[in-house]
Specification:
The structure is a single chain. The chain is 32% helix and 23% strand. The chain has eleven helices and 14 strands. The strands form two sheets. It has a seven-stranded mixed beta sheet. A seven-stranded mixed beta sheet has the order 7-8-9-10-11-12-13, sandwiched between helices. Helix 5 packs across helix 6, helix 7 packs across helix 9 and helix 9 runs parallel beside helix 10. The protein starts with a strand and ends with a helix.
Amino acid sequence: MKITLLGTGTPAPSLTRQSSGYLIEVGGDLIVMDHGPGAHHRLIESGHRAVDVSHVFISHLHYDHCMDYARLVLQRWDIGADRIPDLKVYGPTPIARMTEQLFGEEGVYGPDIRARIEHESSIFVFRERGGTPPRKRPAPQVREVHAGDVVEGNGWRVTVGRASHVQPQLECLAFRLDSDEGSMCYSGDSGGVCEDVIELARGCDMAILMNHYLSGTEPTASYRLACGNHQDNAVIARRAGVKTLVLTHVLSHIDRPSIREQIVREVKQEFDGQVIWGEDLMELELSHLKEKHV
């Protein structure tokens, strides 16, 4: 199993850290978990294309986790020219309504899609890409999932858990992926010492956790429960018994020399596994990480 960090930043604009996005190569499938602004550009930089992606999991509908969802769907549909299966999409309510409002006949991209289906020049391009008219509309296969649900794939299984973020305004999920090649847990955006995330991540080879700010600098208690900090992440990793902790979703004011080292050092005082400071386009292979742990 190979994991590529596409976007390790926040909603704040950055040239070095795009918003949330993670790419998982497992069992012959290419899975995207979250696809915030800039994540699709990183997908291309990683050497992959929209048409290569088979499954998408969205943790919650903050724009920094789903803005590039539309780009992925449209580019995959356009370049794929009806020659690839429909994209499989999993996420919280109302991801189905959002998808319809984006790509339906009366949706935001309805006029664009209609022109690409009906105009002679677009039909020519469609044929050149290997398609046979009449062209079908983009039709992602959307399934709304909730904590406790399980999605089975080609040699892999995703278990859906609950994150601690901005409920009840948004349903916020975490995901655990298990396969013969290893296991990983992505917390989505989760703050505090979330018992649900600890249970979901228990025994995983890798946990990817939101590390939004420096512990002790949270402005309110509710902020701490919504946005991850390094000391809480260390407790989660230790109690879950994971082998490797990846820190991501990093604010710029802690992404600096000395502060990065301080955070990693203090995490290691609580958690004795491997700690990785995530960077965009970082590639992590579970087999290599397990060898290092041994």
